[in-house]
UniProtKB/TrEMBL annotation:
Residues 462-560 form the Pyruvate kinase C-terminal domain. PANTHER family: PYRUVATE KINASE (PTHR11817). Pfam families: PK, PK_C. It comes from the Eukaryota. The keyword Ribonucleoprotein does not apply. Keywords: ATP-binding, Glycolysis, Kinase, Magnesium, Metal-binding, Nucleotide-binding, Pyruvate, Transferase. This is Pyruvate kinase. The keyword DNA damage does not apply.
Length: 580
């Protein structure tokens, strides 16, 4: 078996009885017995100063790790929820699909946030369209307090407002009902509070190119109006499809059954967005989701800005919610750190019947390019008002999990709904059950990955991770441990969607929080040294002390730690061991 280039499988020491039983079945199609020895290694020299590749070392070994009474007590950043799940359900019982919750008035108290964390929230999303700066700051600091004082690991995402040229508001903090044949006035006039049957548009030119007879569709179909008269920049309209008007609703114009497209030539990030981003940097957030992305330029510009202004690695996610973003999907995915499929707004731009296949296509592209993807919008919309989801909603959630989306997101269900905790519980139990079904079908064997690495070190890292997951599946190991400073190899392992859970040990808190969005990865914060053997022994001892790993458990270990003391050597390895 070749791992990369001319790196060949040559020798392995196997001693644990449990592992031998699994190895005897088949390893990469070759029967293995306890007397067989294999290993692979290759060493080249890397002269970094001359910017030419001269050294990459790859090593594989299988060994048994013994407990050591000489190890000093250390710390292991194991969040309390993952630790509890592992103790209760074992390695294969760990949920792999990550859960994102939008925080709003219904769940912004310290107690409600903790309930969401206990129920499995991995990332808290703050929609910058709503609430004040002070409100957002208060929520962020409550989440950080939960993490620091109570042992949770919840990342924080802000979602930019974008140039809201098609946002309207009826002025009330709650929803308003539009009855059939009622007449409403859409105006650009600025006023405080609300007026009867009056909707305030956010953009002066919102009615440009709109004619009597055109239709206004609110929030993708929550209500529909027919334009009866144009009064300057304002519109008088009659409700033809009654429904609820939510605060800060989004509208679209339709003519003869087709969406009316207009190019406003506005930047992706508004002045307010940049102000919110500066605020987010100052509060130490982990993710920024960019709304209404049209191309990759805005994403690159923001990432360059963050590289100079933020001391931590803030990840940038692009929201796919328009035809423009679909047309340039691959370049946007490549430029970003992840993708959010905003199905609500996307459903306004394309026919409804295309949403399922487009979702699957976007998810596939993200997998191929190794970027996490969030499926968002209306997953459990009925649970905004009702304590039980529809069966169709549960099927929708299951399909997103079957497609191996990295994360699922609640919007109004958690932000304003009465049953946010129940909705999160539905996501958790449904995803766990569908993950089990996918394991039983062994669907991982159907996945084919695109080669991503350009440089030889990147190619080696990619091939090591691909082979490590294949080994983990063939050997039937209980877990995969990866030691990583920046999360690259953890994400490459996750991309392969292995059956065993991935435990990513890192000494960088930014990396830990970013990995909260990666499928199947449980990030743990701990001190790492240049001595990989010491790292492995220490972390295994710490996990054993918590009672979450048992004797004879088989562990596959992968590392991409670059020794600080010898910066010209890159050390990447695969080891397989059982716990004594």
């Amino acid at each position: 078996m070749a791992v990369v280039g001319d790196v060949a499988l040559m020798g392995t020491k196997i001693s644990p009885t449990k592992l031998i039983g699994k190895l005897e079945k088949r390893v990469f199609g070759v029967p293995v017995s306890s007397s067989k020895r294999f290993s692979f290694s290759q060493t080249r020299n890397l002269d970094v100063s001359k910017s030419r590749l001269t050294a990459v070392r790859a090593v594989m070994q299988v060994e048994k790790i013994q407990s050591s009474s000489e190890l000093k007590e250390g710390s292991l950043g194991f969040d309390v929820v993952s630790e509890r799940e592992l103790k209760e359900n074992g390695f294969l019982g760990l949920r792999k699909t990550k859960l994102v919750c939008t925080i709003g008035p219904a769940c912004s108290s310290f107690d409600e946030l903790e309930k969401l964390a206990i129920a499995g929230m991995n990332v808290a999303r703050l929609n910058m369209c709503h609430n004040s700066r002070e409100w957002h700051q208060d929520v962020i600091r409550k989440i950080k307090k939960l993490n620091q004082e109570k042992g949770y690991s919840v990342s924080v995402m802000i979602d930019t407002e974008g140039n809201q040229i098609q946002v309207v508001d009826h002025g009330s903090s709650s929803s308003a009902k539009a009855e059939e044949d009622s007449v409403w006035y859409f105006t650009t006039e600025k006023f405080e509070g609300s007026r009867p049957f009056t909707i305030q548009a956010n953009y002066e030119g919102f009615s440009e190119g709109v004619n009597p007879g055109d239709e206004i569709v609110i929030d993708g179909g929550m209500a529909t109006f027919e334009v009866t008269e144009k009064v300057g920049n304002d519109l008088r309209c009659k409700c033809t499809d009654p429904g609820l008007l939510l605060p800060r609703a989004k509208l679209s114009f339709w003519r003869d059954g087709k969406i009316l497209r207009r190019d406003y030539d506005l930047p992706t990030l508004s002045t307010k967005d940049w102000s919110d981003i500066v605020f987010g940097i100052s509060e130490g957030i982990d993710f920024i989701a960019v709304s209404f992305v049209k191309d990759a330029d805005a994403i690159r510009h923001l990432r360059d800005y963050l590289a100079t202004k933020s001391s931590k690695a803030i990840k940038v996610l692009a929201k796919i919610e328009s035809l423009e973003s679909l047309r340039k999907l691959e370049e946007i995915v490549e430029a970003s750190d992840g993708i959010m499929i905003a199905r609500g707004d996307l459903g306004v731009e394309i026919p409804l019947e295309q949403i399922p296949s487009v979702q699957e296509d976007i998810t596939y592209v993200c997998r191929q390019l190794n970027k996490p993807v969030i499926v968002a919008s209306q997953l459990l919309e009925s649970m905004v008002e009702y304590p039980t989801p529809t069966r169709a909603e549960v099927a929708d959630v299951s399909e997103a999990v079957r497609q191996y989306a990295d994360a699922l997101m609640l919007s109004g269900e958690s932000a304003i709904g009465s049953y946010g905790i129940k909705a999160l519980s539905v996501l958790r139990t449904t995803s766990t059950r569908m993950e089990q079904s996918c394991r039983e079908e062994n669907r991982q064997t159907l996945l084919h990955q695109r080669k991503l690495g350009v440089s030889l070190p990147d190619q080696i890292a990619e091939q090591i991770c691909n082979c490590a997951v294949e080994m983990a599946e063939n050997l039937g190991v209980d877990a995969i441990f990866v030691y990583t400073r920046h999360g690259k190899m953890a994400s490459l392992l996750s991309r392969n969607r292995p059956n065993p859970p991935i435990f990513a040990f890192t000494n960088d808190n930014s990396t830990r929080m970013a990995l909260n969005l990666q499928w199947g990865v449980t990030p743990l914060l701990t001190d790492l040294s240049d001595d990989m053997e010491a790292n492995v022994k220490k972390t295994v001892e710490l996990i054993k002390a918590k009672g979450t790993i048992q004797k004879d458990d088989a562990i596959l270990v992968v590392s991409d730690i670059i020794p600080i003391s010898t910066a010209q050597t890159i050390f990447q390895s695969i080891q397989v061991m059982t716990i004594a």
